[in-house]
Amino acid sequence: MKKTVVILLLLISFCSAGAQDFIGMNEQAISTIMSEENPGLTLDKKVKNETFRYLKYSSLNENETWVIFIDEKGKCNGVRVTCDNSFLADKRKQLDNLYKQAEKDQWIHRAKGGDISIRIKDETWFFTITYQRKPQKGKSGNDRTA
User: Fold this and answer.
1) How confident is the model over 76-88, as pLDDT tens digits?
2) Which of 10, 28, 117, 145 yields a CA-CA distance of 20 to 30 A from 136?
3) What is the C-alpha R_g of the chain?
């Protein structure tokens, strides 16, 4: 039992690193990667939303949930990872090591399709990490961030 808990904790502590890479990918590619790289998370097919398309993955103990948002073209346009607060310090360290910090709890990742904004929002019992493509300056007439 101890081995299972340790393995699950290791999987959870490393799994959000590749979320930004999903942006621009189709559902089939995302499903393949999730099953290979995040075996501790399972696809929840019971959840349906008529307004937004998304894939929802959860850990068995529900300490981590991924919602991968899909646009009208069938491509990922954002990822939100929700985790139990016990993982917060480790996730911050991981993000600090992987990405350039823009400000407190916000990082930037340069990807082939543009810059990806990565933000942590700390709540009382959980925190969320949001991966979202930043709008290109001048494209929409304003310079605000996602």
Assistant:
1) 999 999 999 999 9
2) 28
3) 15
